[in-house]
Design goal:
This protein is α/β, with parallel strands linked by helices. The chain is about 50% helix and about 10% strand. Helix 2 (about 30-45) crosses helix 3 (about 55-65).
Length: about 475
């Protein structure tokens, strides 16, 4: 057996693949599944994940295709394994494959991949395997690197290997090279130790898999992944802030030209709770009726004690519950495409994430039909127009459902002063423009963002969430 400490050369590919295949924990016939596994492996290696071992790629890929119907090798070959072999094979099923099968995110990934056209599924499976295993195993220095070109050039030998795999695991164990099996087994033990016990796929991973057909290229995937990661890092609006915004918003009538047409302050219903000044006048007929001579209690007193008296409830103006609107402006997007050393991502990425987070917060606070968000890009020069077009394409992918239901509108404008002042917030690297009528001007472009006299160190945990809460209260309450 050749040295494979750092890299698999061309002469080692075939025996390494055979050893990995021998370790696979899927019960399906390897003669039929080996080719698909090699396609996924070649795609992963070509995408820079050349450290991924074939056995993990094959088994996870088959699980993503099969879902809960994934069958363990022990269900077929348990009786043919030696005592020693049974120990490490069952350990693999218990510690890794069993955990993956029970992971709800794996089931969700299976559903997302099953919804794609058949021609896209091999790419989707390889992409999902890379998302699940790539970041965890990338830090390892013990996993040897492979070359996807070798897999392509050795395709005839690998196809022949698939045809030569015995039907019986017991027969295969008699002819397999044990040194290569021990090598592959040591790599797998190391890989299992590197993999975390958490969910295999995050929500942004699942979104990406479900929309793989719509993503034009790898750069768009990476851009959306970064934005969605920033949105998740901000976190959703807290219950206390949401309740405060909802209550404050109902106290402030929304301006409207037809305000004088709406009634306000009258009575619209009856209730058994209320103030005495709102008591239904006919209730006084019970005063003095059925008086108890000993205690002086009449029917009115009894109805009051039992909570049976009727009160008018006051009507509230429909303006208090009117549809809410936000106008979020990203000023000169091309100038925001830089990264401050103290920030986790580009300034534009963080602004995009904050806009998406505010839209999701509005749905959480007011319901899916309670508010509309219009996202504007202020673009005058050619660079800003090009950047606005690219950003708009990314937002159209992320907010496809919201756009279809008209809960979100995407627009481009060259002039701030012509924008509606209702719920207007501007994210800008420039000084505030007093003529645009913005309710909130967010000075961005450095590690500290400013809203009026307040400062937010957005590179620190929780500061972007604090800024989002501040904007919700300012714009809606």
């Amino acid at each position: 057996m050749a040295d494979t400490q750092n890299r698999l050369d061309r002469t080692n590919i075939v025996p390494a693949i055979e050893a990995w295949a021998y370790l696979c924990g899927h019960a399906g016939p390897l003669r039929e599944t080996l080719h698909d596994g090699l396609v996924w492996l070649r795609t992963c290696w070509a995408n820079g994940l050349d450290f991924l071992p074939f056995d993990l790629v094959h088994d996870l890929g088959q699980m993503l295709l099969s879902g809960r119907s994934f069958a363990f090798a022990s269900s077929r070959d348990l009786g043919s394994w030696s005592e020693q072999e049974r120990v490490w094979r069952m350990d693999y099923e218990d510690r890794l494959l069993g955990r993956w099968v029970l992971d709800p995110s794996v089931g969700e990934a299976h559903v997302a991949i099953a919804g794609l056209p058949p021609k896209l599924r091999p790419e989707a499976v390889a992409h999902a395997v890379g998302l699940a295993l790539g970041s965890a195993l990338r830090q390892s220095s013990q996993l040897p690197a492979g070359n996807p070109a070798h897999l392509r050039s050795l395709a005839p030998q690998l196809d022949q290997l698939a045809e030569q795999i015995p039907n019986s695991c017991e027969q295969w164990s008699l002819r397999i090279d044990r040194e290569w099996v021990d090598w592959a087994l040591s790599l797998r033990i190391h890989a299992i130790q590197m993999l975390p016990d958490s969910r295999l796929f995050e929500p942004e991973d699942l979104w990406e898999l479900a929309h793989l057909q719509e993503l034009p290229n790898e750069s768009a995937r990476l851009a959306l992944r970064e934005i969605h990661g920033a949105v998740a890092a901000i976190g959703s609006v807290g219950p206390s802030v949401g309740l405060q915004v909802r209550r404050k918003a109902q106290e402030v009538p929304v301006e409207a030209d037809e305000a004088d047409q709406y009634p306000a302050g009258g009575f619209d219903a009856l209730s058994t709770k209320g103030r005495f000044e709102n008591l239904v006048r006919t209730e006084v007929v019970y005063v003095g009726e059925g008086v108890d001579g000993e205690h002086g209690i009449d029917i009115f007193d009894v109805r009051y004690a039992e909570g049976e008296l009727l009160f008018y409830t006051r009507d509230q103006s429909p303006l208090l519950d009117q549809h809410r609107q936000l106008n979020l402006v990203i000023d000169q997007p091309a100038q925001l495409r830089f990264k401050d050393p103290q920030l986790p991502a580009q300034t534009l990425v963080l602004v995009d994430a904050l806009c998406l987070r505010l839209q999701a917060d509005l749905v959480s606070v007011f319901g899916p039909n309670g508010a509309t968000v219009t996202i504007w890009w202020r673009a005058e020069a050619g660079e800003d127009v090009a950047a606005a077009t690219e950003e708009r394409n990314l937002f159209e992918l992320t907010l496809a459902a919201e756009l279809a239901h008209r809960r979100v509108v995407l627009e481009t404008t060259p002039d701030l002063e012509k924008l509606p002042a209702r719920g207007l917030a501007v994210f800008s690297p420039n000084t505030p423009d007093p003529d645009c009528g913005a309710r909130a001007w967010i000075g961005v472009g450095e590690s500290v963002w400013r809203v009026g006299d307040e400062q937010f160190e957005v590179g620190k945990p929780g500061q972007l969430r604090a800024l989002a809460d501040r904007l919700l209260v300012t714009l809606l309450a």
